[in-house]
Design a protein that fits this description.
Structural class: alpha+beta
Strand order of the largest sheet: 2-1-3
Strand content: 25-35%
Number of helices: 2
Oligomer: single chain
CATH superfamily: Phosphoribosylformylglycinamidine synthase subunit PurS
Largest sheet: 3 strands, antiparallel
Distance between the termini: 11 Å
Number of strands: 3
Radius of gyration: 16 Å
CATH class: Alpha Beta
Helix content: 25-40%
Number of domains: 1
Length: 79
């Protein structure tokens, strides 16, 4: 049994409207000193396989479904 975390974030230079809107709302609520906000998608998975196979499976999942390689970077972490 293996647990992996898949973290997907936008590449540098790609617009992040969710992060931008969150930052504007935080500022309008009076939160000061917030320099930037970025949206990140995280998938936490438990897989019935070895850690090495789980990492490979997570990377394949990203390539086939979870991430858009044109605008997103992904990272698979074995927990």
């Amino acid at each position: 049994m293996a647990r992996i975390e898949i973290r997907i974030e936008l590449k540098k230079g790609v617009a992040d409207p969710e992060g931008k809107n969150t930052m504007k709302t935080l500022e309008s609520l009076g939160f000061e000193g917030v320099k930037s906000v970025s949206s990140v998608k995280v998938f936490d998975m438990e897989l019935d396989m070895s850690e090495e196979d789980a990492k490979k499976a997570g990377e394949e999942m990203c390539r086939k479904l979870l991430a858009n390689p044109v605008i997103q970077n992904y990272k698979v972490i074995v927990r």
